[in-house]
Amino acid sequence: MNKNRKMSTEKRHRLVGWAFLAPAAILIFVFCFFPMFQAILLSLQSGSGDAAKWTGLSNYIRIWKDKTFWQCLFNTFFYFLVQVPIMLILALVLAQILNNPKIKGKGIFRTMIFLPCATSLVSYSMIFKSLFANDGAVNHLLMNLGLTPVNWFSDSWAARVVIVIALVWRWTGYNMVFYLAGLQNIDYSVYEASYIDGANAFQRFFKITIPLLKPTILLTAIMSTSGTLQLFDESVNLTAGGPGKSTMTLAHYIYNISFVETPKFHYAAALSVFILVMVAILSAIQMKVGDKRE
Amino acid sequence: MSKFKLGISYVILGIASFFSVFPLYYMISGATNSSIDIVRGRMVPGTYLVENFKALIANQNLGLAMANSFRNAVLMTLFTLVVCSIAGYGFEIYHDKGKDILMNILLLAMMLPFVAILIPLFKMFSSWGLVNSWVAFVLPSVSTPFMIMMFRQAARSFPEEIIDAARIDGLSELQIFFRMFVPTMKSTYGAAMTVTFMNAWNNYLWPKVIFQKNESITMPMLVANLKSGYSVDYGMLMLGVLLCTLPTAIIFLCLQKSFANGIMGAVK
Description:
Chain A has helices at 2-43, 58-65, 67-98, 106-114, 121-131, 137-144, 156-184, 188-196, 201-212, 214-229, 233-237, 250-260, 265-292; strands spanning 45-46, 53-54. Chain A is an all-alpha fold. Chain A folds into 2 domains: 2-43; 65-292, MetI-like (MetI-like fold, Orthogonal Bundle), CATH 1.10.3720.10. Chain A has a two-stranded antiparallel ribbon. In chain A, helix 3 (67-98) runs parallel beside helix 7 and helix 12 (250-260) packs antiparallel against helix 13 (265-292). Chain B has a single domain, classed as MetI-like (MetI-like fold, Orthogonal Bundle). In chain B, helix 3 crosses helix 14. Chain B is globular, with a radius of gyration of 23 Å. The mean pLDDT of chain B is 87. Chains A and B meet through helix 1, helix 3, helix 4, helix 5 and helix 7 of A and helix 1, helix 2, helix 4, helix 5 and helix 6 of B.
């Protein structure tokens, strides 16, 4: 009798648990997984509205021949390969310095470096747009130093560099906070022992910090990968994708072909699925690499 | 560590701090100067703030955008806190194999790029006639794996004895959640509030798609509008940027610690 009753309360609690998490789980299924499934279906069709027909992989074949797509893919990968490593290394170095107990005024330094996170993506895009404008602060500084000012937004590479600088500015502090938390879990005596053994700063960085922070580095790398492949606000507001399409990101391109030009939802859906697959592949590679160094 | 190395550390931190703060200083100084002075390279605060404000409200419906952004962000925050905290609690306190599997499946949603589901989502909400409504803004991101994880992590540190004692006292499971868990997890709620409010306030892509009427304009959309046209009024633009940044910056500075704990809490 007693045992029976205990079983039933346990069962009841399990059901209560399901009821508690049901709203959140249903929302994620309805507004994340279901639309993703629909995007895959859309990408296999062509035509508009009810007249849509199954056309197999034709949208994907079209991607192959789309020059703008290749341009956007190149831009996105440029940001990914240049910006993510610079940002993560900077964040690691800053976290390493801030973790030293001898440094005074840590709180102030941390707040200042973390502060860019408080700005919205549109806002900071605008700030950098004015900083790098032809008659903006950066060119004034260059002229004061006796250098020639740069037309940042009319040269493809200069414009890409501005985007990279802006991204590094906005996200370094954010990643630094993750590393600081990770470093707090490492006993500082490990570092003190390394001083006694005569290890230099580089050895400490590569032999202690990086191996012990590996899970955190992996997490930030995956977050940055997915973030970079989704870049939108900066491309739209900082450079408007220009000059030409030389700074346009894939997300910006998808937005344009869905909502700015004549809507090509099916083709846009194929591009979306492509991004999804890329995020998945890149994250899988990073997890593999992260595991190997164990 | 030698004094020399300590000195280098301070120099690096100083440079990093300077570069982090300078663009924000430039924004504040710009908001108080005329466009002509900014273009001439003036970088100290000026006296043009009132004129910039007059130009801004003549050019854009600032009050409306502020009100819309506040309404959207507050509603999003409220619903997110309720839905995700009870879910995180449910996943942890009553965990069993099925729930653990479901959590892993939900975590996959973190990898989904939002652009990838943009079009089906838009079609979904337009077929429901919810375009331009705050419901369409809130629903897709009210429940996020990140927030559920954060509360699940918090529930892990919630002592089982309290739950057992409360059950003996005759509290229902829902009462235990609201009367025992919620009041003891103030810092987690603070962190979740900061993160959600900032994300909702700063969101740009989805509002740009779903809010098509002028009456639904949000602050980031207003700021983006300011750059259109041939000649940009930099003073007005920087004031708009400043006004868009102030609410999140204030929340950020007040709750900085819990914000930092929050973005880390989910990953510990």
